[in-house]
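Practice record 12: protein with sulfoquinovose-uridine-C1,5'-diphosphate.
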Amino acid sequence: MRIAVMGGDGFVGWPTSLHLSDAGHDVHILDNLSRRWIDTELGVQSLTPMDSIQERTRVWHAETGRRIHFHLIDLARDYELLKNWLAEYRPDAIIHFAEQRAAPYSMKSDRHKNYTVNNNINATHNLLNALVELNLDAHLVHLGTMGVYGYSTVGAAIPEGYLPVGVETTSGETVAQEILYPANPGSIYHMTKCLDQLLFQFYAKNDGLRITDLHQGIVWGTHTEQTRRHPQLVNRFDYDGDYGTVLNRFLIQAAIGYPLTVHGTGGQTRAFIHIQDSARCIEIALNNPPARGSRVEIFNQMTETHRVRDLAEMIAGMTGSEIAWLPNPRKEAPENDLVVKNDKFLGLGLEPTTLQGGLLDEIVEVAKKFAYRVDRSRVPAVSAWTKDIAKTINRDP
Ligand code: USQ
């Protein structure tokens, strides 16, 4: 397949591009390099030393003989460029990662809220709009989030996208329906992914676009089979308070002797997936497109659920780290249960990498190896969800 990977320079985009190129596909990365600009804005850098995208693709070619093409295009702002590129290359499939993906970054200030909404919604809409305009029947695979469901305290299993409900008609009968699971975002970032769902629903219904939405949990890990092939193919690893996700943050904190930063009581239960499985799931989704005219296909892309404090205790047990119980900078339920259905990917052959199997390797191979690059002052999470919370958070463990 000729595949366009929008946002292919990012944390999931890069290993996915390598994975698909390795599988024999013709891969084109479209990216505005915004993640690199945001590193500069925040004054942080990836834990792992990362080369330019041009250098990364050069090394991939030298190692494998395969080419990954790079095109500097901003989906949200360069509609004509995007449309012209799609008209010229006419990809068979498009993977859409080209969105601002950090919840804390999206809550930093009014400017960051505007940026996240404008960037994410325009990127998604420009893409859908161009596909219709060009009459391009490419399968669109979007990286969505488990966070669209919200984290209720009810504890019922979350289905894959659609919820069966019984609706009472005027004649008193109960009619069975399946509705898009009610959106319940917990940040501006998650809100943009909820809005994306509506855009997808409309374009699938109105124009027959073939769309798959992957509701992904929190990704952990760094390496995939392909990124291991050369030091310059290494994936990025974020540990800072805005972009670092919880498990990867705990791993690096353990490696540098920084007390593990648990928010509140750590009672939040979340869904997780290893980066290698994330790339595999995307390939599985690509190989199983919905038929034209059918509703949006939705998969829950996660393999296990864990409570934040259990993760902290597990890592403390392995490494002897202390745990810092910090006031929560976020507005979220202090405790929640989470049961998620993921039968679709398992049914299509996914064999999950488990936390138990991979955690220690990750601490030794990545966190300890690159610990010398950590700026400890960038570890605390300083982005508060409301002005009131901002007054109460103590940033130093
Ligand atoms: N947390 C801590 N300590 C930390 C960092 C986070 O206790 O040092 C807690 C947070 O309060 C939250 C949970 O850990 O309850 C998860 O936070 P996170 O930063 O790991 O994940 P989140 O903000 O939800 O976002 C990440 C990705 C996002 C993706 C999402 C999947 O950045 O792109 O969509 O995970 S999900 O969480 O399933 O919505």
